[in-house]
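Friendly challenge for the regulars: who can give me the structure tokens for this chain first? No prize, just bragging rights.
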Amino acid sequence: MRKTLLNWLLLGCLIANQPANAQTGLSERIRLNQIGFYPAAAKVAIIVDEQGGAAANVFQVTTSDGKKVVYSGTLSEPRKNVISGKMARTADFSSFRTTGTYVVNVPGLGYSYPFAIRPDVHHGVAAGALKGFYYQRVSTELPEKFAGQWHRPAGHPDNHVLIHPSAASASRPAGTVISSPWGWYDAGDYNKYIVNSGITLGTLLSLYEDFPDYCKTLTVNIPESKNKLPDLLDESLWNLRWMMTMQDPADGGVYHKLTNAKFDGMEMPDKVKPTERYVVQKSVTAALDFAAVMAQSARIFKGYSRELPGLADSCKAAAIKAWDWAKLNPKALYNQDAMNKEFDPDVVTGTYGDRNADDEWIWAAAELYLTTKDDTYYTAVNLFPDDKTPLPSWPQVRTLAYYSLARFSDQLTSRGKQDLPTLKSHITQLADQLRQDVDKHAFQTPMGKAASDYIWGSSAVAANQGIALIQAYRLTNDATYLDAALANMDYLMGRNAVGYSFVTGFGSKTPMHPHHRPSVADGIEAPVPGLLSGGTNANAARQDKCAGYTTTVADEVFFDNDCSYASNEIAINWNAPLVYLANALEALQGKIGMSAKK
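First reply, four minutes later:
Bragging rights claimed.
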């Protein structure tokens, strides 16, 4: 017995010090962040053990050429993936901190995609995700100097936009021509939607408010990079200025979207068939999302009054007018089917409809309160109607209000300060649920603990979970929240059940065929970079009916094909939380790993 045990120990030592075996080659069963790790951060790879027995119990970290072993360790005991039933084991090399480029090798199985260990390791993704918005700009040429091989002519000038009959008013009857340029293409299509722009800009502007000094250093090579504004604000302005054109100056109402009657074909923006573009009916959700963003913008751009004279005041006035319109029209929900029964032409593009506006009222009230310091807004609605803290998404923006109130907790009026314990409880409760028992789950990330995470746009679920954890960290200085947020960044960059980095152009295995018209039509093999694919979606096959899905397992339903708009489209409201998460981690990298030192 002793001799057998000794033989196994000797064999283990030999394997642990043997360089990567070229015969085994790359193994996609080793899942990790394909970009890399901060030196002091947790460093984890997950070995997917489909057969229930790994090739070895040990692993190595080697130089990227496989010639030198720099770290050896033992795999964890197997854990069962409660969604797929497959087994997973962890290779934890957190104690290895030497900068360089490496692979993880499991003898008999193979080696991982390469990754780096270094400071600022996510800077490229962080900057690239913000640059992704530049590629979505409407009404402007993208010159090669800024867009590289993805340069293109301008499309959709939007200087001749019609008032749809559903949006007609006394001062703007149906058929009235307005100019509404700028903005971002919303997703894979070429339309512009106020509701989705709301959460998108709210998230980007929150990054600036949370980390202003860091954001002032972030440059991404856009035409405005040499002016005196941070690139994050310059890019945000491109959409903000469009949003301001969507407000009816007569009554303060906000048109729900600017759109074709039908989706454009899969062509470049300048090549699509000319067709009328419309602004459609005003809605209460559009007005309130608009009010929230304008109030937040007024706070931020007040600090740039010399560069942008009058903008902050204009934003504040626009926010108040939109709020007042919403108070007069609280039941004006957008119902596209009902609209099409009453008005022509029918509009069949994205709806962004909502069953109620309770959460939009809360967000708008909070932002207007913070900007004006007027308690009337704070008490206009019940900011804490229950003990829930829903994860932000375009139809559920309540928690954005909580983030903003917490951000300025030391500047609240006495009325607002009365609710600080409740506010803190809401944010930490959500974060506690996210980080609870993470180590017991297959991929050891907050994302994916339940199959319900795998919805349309699940990548944004992961990114927004990361933001929620960072907000809790900012409130408490508890570094375990920050570590959990970083784990979700690992998820997005490859530590997941399909082994993809979901960000185009960043990682070794990334989406090459997103549902994104320019990426399909530009004739370039590589898709436009810096765009976050929607990601795994349990119901994708039923929703888009794209032929080619190979599984129904909730955390594995992903198809890198441009027909898979339910799993592989891109969208501005998905990119925004990626921009926040990646840049916040860069800003806070000096705090990462602190929980391990306690």
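Residues 484 and 507 are 21 Å apart (CA to CA). Confidence is low (pLDDT under 50) at residues 1-23. Your move, everyone else.
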